[in-house]
Amino acid sequence: MKDMPKVYDHESVEAKWYEKWESSGYFHAKPNPEKTPFTIVIPPPNITGKLHMGHALDNTLQDAIARYKRMAGYEMLWLPGTDHASIATEVKIVEALAAEGLTKKDVGREGFLKRAWQWREEYGTTIVKQLRKMGSSCDWDRERFTMDEGCNRAVVKVFKSLYDKKLIYRGDRIINWCPDCKTALSDAEVEYESQQSHLWHIRYDAPDKSYSIIVATTRPETMLGDTAVAVNPEDPRYKDIIGKTVVLPLVNREIPIVGDEYCEMEFGTGAVKITPAHDPNDFEVGRRHDLPIIKVFDERGTINENGGAYQGQDRFECRKNIVKDLEASGNLVKIEDYTHNVGTCYRCHTTIETIVSKQWFVDMKPLTEPALEAVRSGAVKFIPDRFSKPYFNWMENIRDWCISRQLWWGHRIPVYYCDDCGGTFCEETAPEKCPICGGKLRQDEDVLDTWFSSGLWPFSTLGWPDKTEELDYFYPTTTLVTGYDIITFWVSRMITFGMEVMKKPPFANVYIHGLVRDSQGRKMSKSLGNGIDPLEIIEKYGADPLRFSLVTGNSAGNDMRFYWEKVESARNFCNKVYNAARFVLMNIPEDADTHIREELLDTADKWILSRLNEITRSVTDNLEGYELNLAAEKIYDFIWSEFCDWYIEMAKSALYGEDLDRKQTVCAVLIRVLSVSMQLLHPFMPFITEEIYQQLPGHEETIMLSSWPKAEETDKYARECAAMEIIMELVKSIRNIRADLKVPPAQRISVRIVSEKPEELTGTEGYLLKLAGVEKTDISRERGTVLKSDVHLVCNGAEAFIPLASLVDLEKERERIGKEIERVQGDIARANAKLSNEKFVQKAPEAVVNEERRKLQNAADMLQKLQQRLQTLQD
RNA sequence: GGGGUUAUAGCUCAGCUGGUUAGAGCGCCACGUUGACAUCGUGGAGGUCAUUGGUUCGAUUCCAAUUAAUCCCACCA
Q1: pLDDT tens string A244-280
Q2: Between A543-551 and A628-637, two packed helices, what is the crossing angle to 10 degrees?
Q3: Residue A742 CA to B10 C1' — how many Å?
Q4: Cβ contacts of residue A385 below 8 Å, gap of 6+?
Q5: Residues in Cβ contact with A736 at an 8 Å cutoff, skipping those fewer than 6 apart
Q6: How far is the CA of A385 from the C1' of B52 (A)?
Q7: What's phi and psi for A86, nearest 5 deg?
Q8: What is the pLDDT of residues A558-572, one digit of tens each?
Q9: Which of A30, A389, A793, A844 shows its CA 20 to 30 Å from the CA of A77?
Q10: Quick one: which H or E segment has residue A447?
Q11: Which residue in A803, A808, A786 sits closest to A751, CA to CA?
């Protein structure tokens, strides 16, 4: 007999096992030479550090899969992803920031910039995606990780190899530029604001004034950089003048009129001025028509030497002056009010400029073909499969990838320039001096896109380009777990680089999960303040309930909303499991004999063992198919609804009885069922299952090293299961009728059961007594004398008569039977309709037809009994 | 504009390759503390499976269209 508290204490149990597992080296274990299943790297199930929920989900699924696979004898690698790894380094950086007294305002300023570069030296190559976000305060996004020198080597090596193959090139590209912060911004960093402005209509005249064209623009100052006017080639208004020129007012530069589809006839005047240097669309048009690119702004947003008379003016001041001058020259035709979206810097809300600059690109086409083939051939499988669609869509329409970023942190592009002779060199290690003229070299200031190095993650983290044991063993891995939001950014690039560098895909399966949203379905974000700290959940309800609530109640790839109620109900399940175990442990002797002697098993024992076998099979199948939610829900239902609600209740009569053999048998069955249940549940609730498992007799070793339960193929107790079905149905019916007739719980009743095979129900009387408040029961084949005052229950395979003379209202009883008859007649009608349909009988599979016949037979039997009973009541 | 996803009980969601009396959790109603558990038990109410067509003996499930949400990409002179 054990003395255990009534309520499960998650805190102490989690702390205990966390510590034990950690000291046993079960976390972050290195592969060992024997390549045993132990080599799987397991992340702590507890979540350390403050993570966003999305990451917690990732961790949780990753971990649940790893645990299952390990117990099932699989091997799997879990490595910290880009989001989780080097919290320590981040803390260092942020602390350093704070120590410097740097705040949000300093970000982007000289002082910060200097420090940032210094840190980059100091910490080696630390990738920080959008470090400026981090610099804003100590409350930062966790979207960064540290690469050790080995990873840096990998990055440089891959870059050089692509460079040498001429798959990396330098080209012009339009980027977003904040003139205030003086940095480039990614598209994601640009926030659009609706602004009240104007649409200025400006007339550009022909050199000889024989024709003119009116363009509409929201940004008249950019006309200084115009190099063409575009019209739609189909536009009848302008068809004739395509190929001719007009003179740019104020500047007096002659520019061509080009025909381009981009220009919509309906918008404005149907003519667009083209400024390739300062507008992404114009840039594309310029490229198609081979137009010159004239930059008119400098990095501060003031007009440069190309602006002629306007040089040195601020861009907004210049706009006013230009408008004024155009008005004076008579070229300004009209001013319309106009509301449009203007890109602003997410940080300082300065209107951004788009300017042309030199960037590095990867020519993706030759690289994507093998990566596409890897998925087409099934070497890499997305789970669920539908996520291969966006992958194909992205890869088949791949564009050249701009990999240079104007950030302060990251792997610097390994390209060196000689200012003396103008040479450009890509080298793995920085050359001392120019190999051509011996001049001084200057490394490219830009860093690589985060995803470039992240794409190398499957092998760079394992030591490539060295031939390491880890690499040999863990490349490729089994499964990648990640969210659908980074399929194109990350997954596609890992596969691409994997095929290019390793000639093999990095993993066989990609398990895609959704995002955790708040209870209103919004993405959790810092700016909304609706993020939930997993540690808070763990503290309140425990790590097991958190994990369980994240795995259940939604299917792969779908987003889920976070509800405290859900965690609470998972916590309740924990308590249920704990109390079931408590019951078992309190009732078994210390030295319990766990051997199950088959000859001593009764109907209920055989039923629960049979159910256990079935659940083992289906949980295993679901896990194999990555249907984690179904697996978790099935073991949940089994434990709660079958083991606790039925078997434990039925076990009590044996446990409290005198028969020692029965007692031993029931104990052994209880232990077996509980132990296997814990194994099946363990991937989803690691702590509580470990705790219970090791308290059961004969389990000194961690549950993590036990092998996954194996289901038997045959269902050898089918007969007992059928009998149990009858018993359970009877119990439910009796409970129902008691509730209906308001029989007080304390009042015992007697029941007479009539069955065609009474021998199969023999030995189960005790269960009726225990579960349905029955004090006397009698099972026989004969119907005997039925009294009017007997309540009559009919179920599949048995009838029950309950003498409740004082309580039965004959009228109501007739009504009840009448309703039953109606229901059964409905069943009969439904089955008949199907069976009388010739085509159904002809075309439906035999099993389905037989099932329908069986239903009809059952219903007919019941109908007959019910009618007989009704007859009795009416006599 | 291109490509996805979703629509099932009051709420949040399951339902694998078409055949179920359509399920769960939470919430709601009634009853209940007999010795695992009130973080519990027993019973109950609640759904025309978004709409319309089609395929089929049979559609919540497959196909098409519609409507409404939503995401990614491209773009908004």
Answers
A1: 889 998 888 999 998 887 877 777 778 889 998 888 8
A2: 120
A3: 29
A4: none
A5: none
A6: 29
A7: -100, 70
A8: 888 889 999 999 999
A9: A389
A10: strand A447-448
A11: A803
